[in-house]
Design brief:
It is a single chain. The protein is of the alpha+beta class. It has a three-stranded antiparallel beta sheet with strand order 1-3-2.
């Protein structure tokens, strides 16, 4: 599951995505499955987590993105 979350974020890079959209896109059972992984990724290997507009749903909320290499 963690690899799927990371792969989805990578495919959207550099656009941000919120945890709710990660859950929906990957068919996860609970929000904590996405938020746990996005919190782990934040600040590592080019991942940034913060308030922004989600590229999928357009809501302003906590999102994660990966900067392009």
């Amino acid at each position: 599951m963690a690899d799927k979350v990371e792969a989805l974020i990578g495919r959207l890079a550099p656009e941000p995505i919120c945890d709710d959209c990660i859950v929906e896109r990957l068919g996860l059972a609970a929000l904590h499955q996405a938020s746990q992984r996005t919190n782990e990724l934040a600040g590592t290997r080019g991942y940034e987590r913060g308030q922004n507009e989600c590229a999928i749903c357009g809501s302003a909320k906590m999102v994660i993105r990966r900067k392009r290499k």
